[in-house]
Amino acid sequence: MAHDVFISYAGEDKAAADAVCAALEAGRCRCWIAPRDVQPSDNWSEAIVSAILQSRLVVLLLSRHANGSPYVPLEAERATGRGIPILPVRVEDVLPGPSLELFLSARHWFDALPPPVVGHLPRLVAAVRGRLTGTGVPVAVPDRPIIHRHKVCLLGSYAVGKTSLVRRFVSSMYSDSYYATLGVRIDKKTITIGQASVALHIWDVAGEEESTSLPASYLAGSQGFLLVVDGTRPKTLDVAVVLAERAERVMGPVPFVALLNKADLADWWALDEATIDDLVRQGWTVVRTSAKTGENVEQAFHTLATRIVGVPS
Ligand SMILES: Nc1nc2c(ncn2[C@@H]2O[C@H](COP(=O)(O)OP(=O)(O)O)[C@@H](O)[C@H]2O)c(=O)[nH]1
Ligand SMILES: [Mg+2]
Protein backbone atom coordinates (compact mmCIF):
# COMPACT_ATOMS: atom_id res chain seq x y z
CA MET A 1 0.00 0.00 0.00
CA ALA A 2 1.28 3.49 -0.77
CA HIS A 3 2.47 5.46 2.21
CA ASP A 4 3.63 8.98 3.05
CA VAL A 5 5.61 8.48 6.22
CA PHE A 6 8.49 6.11 6.95
CA ILE A 7 9.01 5.55 10.67
CA SER A 8 12.65 5.09 11.62
CA TYR A 9 13.39 3.87 15.16
CA ALA A 10 15.68 1.70 17.24
CA GLY A 11 14.29 -1.66 18.32
CA GLU A 12 14.27 -0.57 21.97
CA ASP A 13 11.82 2.24 21.09
CA LYS A 14 9.33 -0.10 19.41
CA ALA A 15 6.50 0.68 21.82
CA ALA A 16 6.86 4.43 21.20
CA ALA A 17 7.18 3.84 17.43
CA ASP A 18 4.02 1.73 17.36
CA ALA A 19 2.14 4.41 19.31
CA VAL A 20 3.34 7.09 16.87
CA CYS A 21 2.35 4.92 13.92
CA ALA A 22 -1.12 4.21 15.30
CA ALA A 23 -1.76 7.90 16.02
CA LEU A 24 -0.56 9.00 12.57
CA GLU A 25 -2.71 6.42 10.84
CA ALA A 26 -5.71 7.44 12.92
CA GLY A 27 -4.93 10.97 11.71
CA ARG A 28 -5.01 9.74 8.07
CA CYS A 29 -1.21 9.77 7.53
CA ARG A 30 -0.27 6.56 5.79
CA CYS A 31 2.78 4.98 7.44
CA TRP A 32 5.35 2.32 6.67
CA ILE A 33 6.88 0.62 9.68
CA ALA A 34 9.04 -2.45 10.13
CA PRO A 35 8.53 -5.25 10.84
CA ARG A 36 4.79 -4.84 10.19
CA ASP A 37 5.13 -3.84 6.55
CA VAL A 38 7.97 -6.13 5.53
CA GLN A 39 6.40 -8.92 3.50
CA PRO A 40 7.57 -12.50 4.15
CA SER A 41 8.97 -12.70 0.61
CA ASP A 42 10.90 -9.41 0.91
CA ASN A 43 14.62 -8.99 1.35
CA TRP A 44 14.70 -7.02 4.62
CA SER A 45 17.17 -4.25 3.74
CA GLU A 46 15.83 -3.83 0.20
CA ALA A 47 12.33 -3.48 1.60
CA ILE A 48 13.51 -0.79 4.02
CA VAL A 49 15.37 1.20 1.37
CA SER A 50 12.52 1.02 -1.07
CA ALA A 51 10.04 2.10 1.62
CA ILE A 52 12.21 5.11 2.48
CA LEU A 53 12.50 6.14 -1.15
CA GLN A 54 8.74 5.93 -1.61
CA SER A 55 8.02 8.10 1.41
CA ARG A 56 7.51 11.86 1.55
CA LEU A 57 8.68 12.25 5.13
CA VAL A 58 10.77 10.20 7.53
CA VAL A 59 9.70 10.43 11.15
CA LEU A 60 12.80 9.48 13.14
CA LEU A 61 12.49 8.67 16.83
CA LEU A 62 15.54 10.23 18.46
CA SER A 63 16.77 8.58 21.64
CA ARG A 64 19.91 7.10 23.20
CA HIS A 65 19.13 3.90 21.40
CA ALA A 66 18.66 5.61 18.03
CA ASN A 67 22.06 7.27 18.52
CA GLY A 68 23.62 3.87 19.12
CA SER A 69 21.66 2.01 16.47
CA PRO A 70 23.46 0.74 13.35
CA TYR A 71 20.27 1.12 11.29
CA VAL A 72 18.73 4.47 12.16
CA PRO A 73 21.71 6.53 10.82
CA LEU A 74 21.74 4.46 7.62
CA GLU A 75 18.05 5.15 7.14
CA ALA A 76 18.66 8.85 7.79
CA GLU A 77 21.49 8.86 5.27
CA ARG A 78 19.32 7.22 2.61
CA ALA A 79 16.57 9.77 3.15
CA THR A 80 18.97 12.72 3.13
CA GLY A 81 20.68 11.43 0.00
CA ARG A 82 17.34 11.46 -1.83
CA GLY A 83 16.25 14.81 -0.44
CA ILE A 84 13.46 13.26 1.64
CA PRO A 85 12.87 15.43 4.71
CA ILE A 86 13.36 13.97 8.16
CA LEU A 87 11.33 14.99 11.19
CA PRO A 88 13.30 14.01 14.29
CA VAL A 89 10.99 13.32 17.19
CA ARG A 90 12.79 13.41 20.49
CA VAL A 91 11.39 10.69 22.71
CA GLU A 92 14.29 11.18 25.15
CA ASP A 93 16.17 14.30 26.18
CA VAL A 94 19.28 13.60 24.10
CA LEU A 95 21.03 15.37 21.23
CA PRO A 96 21.83 13.57 17.99
CA GLY A 97 25.03 11.56 18.40
CA PRO A 98 27.95 11.69 15.95
CA SER A 99 26.40 9.16 13.59
CA LEU A 100 23.15 11.11 13.28
CA GLU A 101 24.03 14.78 13.66
CA LEU A 102 25.04 15.20 10.02
CA PHE A 103 21.57 14.21 8.87
CA LEU A 104 19.33 15.98 11.33
CA SER A 105 18.36 19.56 10.96
CA ALA A 106 17.34 20.81 14.39
CA ARG A 107 15.00 23.40 12.90
CA HIS A 108 12.32 20.76 12.56
CA TRP A 109 12.74 18.90 15.82
CA PHE A 110 9.62 17.80 17.54
CA ASP A 111 10.01 17.39 21.29
CA ALA A 112 7.80 14.55 22.52
CA LEU A 113 9.01 15.39 26.01
CA PRO A 114 8.60 14.71 28.84
CA PRO A 115 7.83 11.01 28.24
CA PRO A 116 5.63 9.14 27.64
CA VAL A 117 5.19 9.86 23.97
CA VAL A 118 1.42 9.31 24.17
CA GLY A 119 0.85 12.73 25.74
CA HIS A 120 2.34 14.43 22.68
CA LEU A 121 0.66 12.51 19.90
CA PRO A 122 -2.09 14.97 18.92
CA ARG A 123 0.51 17.73 18.41
CA LEU A 124 2.76 15.33 16.53
CA VAL A 125 -0.03 14.29 14.18
CA ALA A 126 -0.79 17.96 13.50
CA ALA A 127 2.90 18.64 12.83
CA VAL A 128 3.26 15.69 10.45
CA ARG A 129 0.07 16.58 8.61
CA GLY A 130 1.32 20.14 8.33
CA ARG A 131 4.58 18.94 6.81
CA LEU A 132 2.78 16.66 4.37
CA THR A 133 0.24 19.22 3.25
CA GLY A 134 2.66 22.14 3.35
CA THR A 135 0.47 24.12 5.70
CA GLY A 136 3.37 24.54 8.06
CA VAL A 137 1.80 23.83 11.44
CA PRO A 138 4.53 25.06 13.77
CA VAL A 139 6.72 22.40 15.29
CA ALA A 140 8.07 22.84 18.80
CA VAL A 141 11.64 24.00 18.66
CA PRO A 142 13.97 23.01 21.49
CA ASP A 143 15.02 25.85 23.72
CA ARG A 144 18.74 25.11 23.53
CA PRO A 145 20.85 26.79 20.81
CA ILE A 146 20.15 25.21 17.48
CA ILE A 147 23.17 23.86 15.68
CA HIS A 148 22.89 22.39 12.22
CA ARG A 149 25.83 20.40 10.95
CA HIS A 150 26.12 19.87 7.25
CA LYS A 151 28.62 18.25 4.98
CA VAL A 152 29.24 20.17 1.80
CA CYS A 153 31.84 19.50 -0.85
CA LEU A 154 33.72 21.40 -3.49
CA LEU A 155 33.49 20.13 -7.04
CA GLY A 156 35.20 21.45 -10.13
CA SER A 157 38.01 20.93 -12.57
CA TYR A 158 41.65 21.19 -11.42
CA ALA A 159 43.09 24.60 -10.53
CA VAL A 160 39.76 26.42 -10.71
CA GLY A 161 40.33 27.70 -7.17
CA LYS A 162 38.48 25.19 -4.95
CA THR A 163 41.17 25.08 -2.26
CA SER A 164 41.73 28.84 -2.47
CA LEU A 165 38.01 29.50 -1.97
CA VAL A 166 37.88 27.29 1.12
CA ARG A 167 40.99 28.98 2.51
CA ARG A 168 39.54 32.42 1.87
CA PHE A 169 36.25 31.45 3.51
CA VAL A 170 37.67 29.59 6.50
CA SER A 171 40.83 31.59 7.28
CA SER A 172 40.52 34.78 5.20
CA MET A 173 43.78 33.89 3.50
CA TYR A 174 44.92 33.64 -0.08
CA SER A 175 48.17 32.57 -1.72
CA ASP A 176 49.18 32.78 -5.36
CA SER A 177 51.33 29.67 -5.21
CA TYR A 178 49.54 26.68 -6.66
CA TYR A 179 49.35 23.68 -4.39
CA ALA A 180 47.57 20.56 -5.58
CA THR A 181 45.51 19.24 -2.69
CA LEU A 182 46.57 15.81 -1.51
CA GLY A 183 43.83 13.49 -0.37
CA VAL A 184 40.73 14.94 1.23
CA ARG A 185 40.80 17.88 3.58
CA ILE A 186 37.87 18.70 5.81
CA ASP A 187 37.58 22.24 7.11
CA LYS A 188 34.89 23.44 9.46
CA LYS A 189 33.32 26.83 9.83
CA THR A 190 30.19 27.85 11.71
CA ILE A 191 28.02 30.63 10.36
CA THR A 192 24.81 32.14 11.60
CA ILE A 193 21.64 32.04 9.57
CA GLY A 194 18.64 33.63 11.23
CA GLN A 195 18.42 32.07 14.71
CA ALA A 196 20.50 29.06 13.79
CA SER A 197 24.18 28.22 13.89
CA VAL A 198 25.20 26.21 10.89
CA ALA A 199 28.44 24.25 11.16
CA LEU A 200 29.67 23.51 7.69
CA HIS A 201 31.99 20.56 7.24
CA ILE A 202 33.67 21.46 3.99
CA TRP A 203 35.22 18.65 1.98
CA ASP A 204 37.90 19.56 -0.54
CA VAL A 205 39.60 16.86 -2.55
CA ALA A 206 42.80 16.28 -4.48
CA GLY A 207 42.23 17.86 -7.84
CA GLU A 208 44.88 16.48 -10.14
CA GLU A 209 42.26 15.01 -12.47
CA GLU A 210 38.99 16.48 -13.65
CA SER A 211 37.36 15.13 -10.48
CA THR A 212 34.79 13.34 -12.65
CA SER A 213 36.20 10.12 -11.19
CA LEU A 214 35.74 11.14 -7.57
CA PRO A 215 34.79 8.27 -5.29
CA ALA A 216 31.10 8.21 -4.41
CA SER A 217 32.13 8.32 -0.72
CA TYR A 218 33.36 11.87 -1.26
CA LEU A 219 29.95 12.93 -2.48
CA ALA A 220 27.76 10.67 -0.35
CA GLY A 221 26.11 12.33 2.61
CA SER A 222 26.84 15.82 1.29
CA GLN A 223 23.84 18.02 1.75
CA GLY A 224 24.99 20.45 -0.89
CA PHE A 225 27.99 21.44 -2.94
CA LEU A 226 29.83 24.32 -4.51
CA LEU A 227 30.54 23.82 -8.18
CA VAL A 228 33.57 25.84 -9.16
CA VAL A 229 34.40 27.13 -12.65
CA ASP A 230 37.47 29.12 -13.68
CA GLY A 231 36.13 32.17 -15.52
CA THR A 232 39.24 32.27 -17.70
CA ARG A 233 38.93 28.64 -18.89
CA PRO A 234 35.61 27.84 -20.63
CA LYS A 235 36.36 24.10 -20.60
CA THR A 236 36.00 24.11 -16.82
CA LEU A 237 32.35 25.05 -17.32
CA ASP A 238 31.82 21.93 -19.45
CA VAL A 239 33.44 19.86 -16.70
CA ALA A 240 31.16 21.50 -14.15
CA VAL A 241 28.06 20.49 -16.11
CA VAL A 242 29.22 16.86 -16.12
CA LEU A 243 30.05 17.00 -12.41
CA ALA A 244 26.64 18.45 -11.53
CA GLU A 245 24.97 15.55 -13.33
CA ARG A 246 27.12 12.99 -11.53
CA ALA A 247 26.52 14.67 -8.19
CA GLU A 248 22.78 14.51 -8.68
CA ARG A 249 22.99 10.81 -9.50
CA VAL A 250 24.86 10.09 -6.25
CA MET A 251 23.35 12.64 -3.85
CA GLY A 252 19.92 13.25 -5.31
CA PRO A 253 18.69 16.76 -5.97
CA VAL A 254 20.64 18.58 -3.22
CA PRO A 255 21.21 22.33 -3.47
CA PHE A 256 24.35 23.66 -5.10
CA VAL A 257 25.77 27.02 -6.03
CA ALA A 258 27.94 27.49 -9.13
CA LEU A 259 30.91 29.80 -8.59
CA LEU A 260 32.46 31.53 -11.58
CA ASN A 261 35.79 32.10 -9.90
CA LYS A 262 38.76 34.38 -10.66
CA ALA A 263 36.43 37.32 -11.26
CA ASP A 264 39.42 39.57 -10.59
CA LEU A 265 40.94 38.47 -13.91
CA ALA A 266 38.45 40.51 -15.94
CA ASP A 267 40.82 40.91 -18.91
CA TRP A 268 41.05 37.16 -19.39
CA TRP A 269 37.38 36.39 -18.72
CA ALA A 270 36.34 33.88 -21.38
CA LEU A 271 32.95 32.44 -20.44
CA ASP A 272 30.09 32.59 -22.89
CA GLU A 273 27.34 34.69 -21.30
CA ALA A 274 24.59 32.93 -23.31
CA THR A 275 25.66 29.55 -21.88
CA ILE A 276 25.53 30.97 -18.37
CA ASP A 277 22.10 32.49 -18.99
CA ASP A 278 20.91 29.06 -20.14
CA LEU A 279 22.16 27.44 -16.94
CA VAL A 280 20.43 30.10 -14.84
CA ARG A 281 17.23 29.43 -16.74
CA GLN A 282 17.66 25.72 -15.89
CA GLY A 283 17.69 26.71 -12.23
CA TRP A 284 21.38 27.10 -11.48
CA THR A 285 22.34 29.69 -8.88
CA VAL A 286 25.45 31.39 -10.25
CA VAL A 287 27.78 33.69 -8.30
CA ARG A 288 30.93 35.42 -9.58
CA THR A 289 33.68 35.05 -7.00
CA SER A 290 37.33 35.78 -6.47
CA ALA A 291 39.29 33.85 -3.89
CA LYS A 292 42.02 36.42 -4.48
CA THR A 293 40.05 39.55 -3.54
CA GLY A 294 37.42 37.73 -1.46
CA GLU A 295 34.61 39.03 -3.68
CA ASN A 296 31.35 37.15 -2.98
CA VAL A 297 33.12 34.20 -1.31
CA GLU A 298 31.37 34.56 2.03
CA GLN A 299 28.09 35.16 0.22
CA ALA A 300 28.47 32.00 -1.90
CA PHE A 301 28.91 29.74 1.15
CA HIS A 302 26.10 31.58 2.90
CA THR A 303 23.73 31.09 -0.02
CA LEU A 304 24.50 27.38 -0.09
CA ALA A 305 24.03 26.99 3.68
CA THR A 306 20.76 28.92 3.58
CA ARG A 307 19.40 26.71 0.84
CA ILE A 308 20.44 23.56 2.72
CA VAL A 309 18.86 24.68 5.97
CA GLY A 310 15.84 25.78 4.01
CA VAL A 311 15.19 29.21 5.53
CA PRO A 312 14.82 32.37 3.50
CA SER A 313 17.97 34.50 3.44
N1 LIG B 1 43.57 35.47 -9.95
C1 LIG B 1 43.03 34.48 -9.24
N2 LIG B 1 43.66 33.33 -9.07
C2 LIG B 1 43.06 32.36 -8.32
C3 LIG B 1 41.80 32.54 -7.73
N3 LIG B 1 41.49 31.41 -7.07
C4 LIG B 1 42.52 30.56 -7.21
N4 LIG B 1 43.49 31.14 -7.96
C5 LIG B 1 44.76 30.56 -8.35
O1 LIG B 1 44.49 29.43 -9.15
C6 LIG B 1 45.40 28.39 -8.86
C7 LIG B 1 44.64 27.12 -8.46
O2 LIG B 1 43.99 27.34 -7.22
P1 LIG B 1 43.60 26.15 -6.24
O3 LIG B 1 42.81 26.78 -5.16
O4 LIG B 1 44.76 25.35 -5.85
O5 LIG B 1 42.66 25.31 -7.23
P2 LIG B 1 42.02 23.84 -7.04
O6 LIG B 1 42.89 22.90 -7.79
O7 LIG B 1 40.68 23.95 -7.68
O8 LIG B 1 41.95 23.56 -5.57
C8 LIG B 1 46.32 28.92 -7.76
O9 LIG B 1 47.48 29.44 -8.38
C9 LIG B 1 45.52 30.02 -7.15
O10 LIG B 1 46.33 30.99 -6.57
C10 LIG B 1 41.13 33.79 -7.95
O11 LIG B 1 40.02 34.05 -7.51
N5 LIG B 1 41.79 34.72 -8.72
MG1 LIG C 1 42.79 21.98 -4.50
CATH topology of the largest domain: Rossmann fold
Number of domains: 2
Helix content: 25-40%
Which compounds are bound in this model? guanosine-5'-diphosphate, magnesium ion
The helix tally amounts to 10
State the CATH superfamily name of the largest domain: P-loop containing nucleotide triphosphate hydrolases
What is the overall pLDDT average?
Answer: 86
The gyration radius over C-alpha positions equals 21 Å
SS content category: alpha/beta
Quick description:
The protein contains ten helices and eleven strands. By secondary structure, it is of the alpha/beta class. The protein binds guanosine-5'-diphosphate and magnesium ion.
Set down the secondary structure blueprint.
Blueprint: E1 5-8, H1 14-26, E2 31-32, H2 44-53, E3 57-62, H3 64-68, H4 72-81, E4 86-90, E5 110-111, H5 121-133, E6 147-156, H6 162-171, E7 184-193, E8 196-205, H7 216-219, E9 224-230, H8 235-251, E10 256-261, H9 273-281, E11 286-288, H10 297-309
Parallel strand pairs: 1-2, 1-3, 3-4, 4-5, 6-8, 6-9, 9-10, 10-11
Antiparallel strand pairs: 7-8
The structure holds guanosine-5'-diphosphate (GDP) and magnesium ion (MG).
